[in-house]
Every structure is written in structure tokens, then in C-alpha cells.
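Thread: "does anyone have the structure for this chain?"

Original post by V.I.:
We have the sequence but no experimental structure in hand. Need at least a predicted one for the grant figures.
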Amino acid sequence: MVGSDLTVQFPSITYGLQVARHNPDAFFALTNPDTYANVALTPGEEKFVPGAGCLGALFQCFLEKNPDISPGKPDPTFLSALLLSLQLLPSECLFIGDNLSTDIQLALNAGTDSLCVLSGVTSESKVLDEQTRVPTYYASHLFI
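Reply from O.Q.:
Generated one for you, C-alpha cells below.
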């Protein structure tokens, strides 16, 4: 299972790559293809950091194979199962996210409306230029 980790260090990555390479039949799962995330490493200090997709690409390149599964966004499986367990229709939901290629694509794949929050990895100009992954709504911030 390859995912995002803000504390991962090169020796840990190297160990994981070696274990995976010596076990070619091992199941290779990637949590999601996000290339980067906007995180607050310290209060008030947001930075872009590599996402799970970056680590996944490293494993893909080293192992010379694609993940066997990537069950996270934008695959709608988990969201569809959640809606089913809550007895909700996709038309009754709004999926909120900050990434057009994972969050908004997930909403499109699952048939829900979407709200793209511009406080993350997507800018307003990116939303306005988008041709295929168009959110239902977008907003600069989300206040709860």
C-alpha cells in the first residue's frame, strides 16, 4: 500500500522498494493519484508537498508495473458504498474538494454535485479553464 506520508524518509522508501522488488507477486495498491497537496506544516504556514501519486510513481518506475488497484479518488467505489450505507442518492449529495483531477473527478464519476474550494491546490483560473472536470460550484474558502 503506497500513500501519502509527510514524515517518510529515503531509507524507508528504499526499504519498501527493495521488499516489493524481491516479491514480484506482491499486491501493489496506491491510495490515490494526487500529485501534490496543500498542507499546513506549522500553524499559518501552508506549503505544497508531494502527494501519494508521487510516491506511487516512484514505485511504478522502480517496479516497472502499474498499481494492481488504486481504490481512492477518483474511483467512486468507496463513495458509492458510503451513499448506499447512508441510504442516500448521489443527487442528494455535494462532494467538496480542492483538486479537479481527484476530488471533482470523483464527484463526476459518482454522479454527485461538487464544490471546488480554491483554498487548496486549484486556482480560480484553473476552474474557469477546465473543459472536462467542471465542478458544479466553486468557492474561495469554506466556512463552517
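V.I.: this helps a lot. The CA atoms of residues 100 and 133 lie 6 Å apart.
O.Q.: and The beta strands are 36-42, 45-50, 94-97, 113-117, 137-139.
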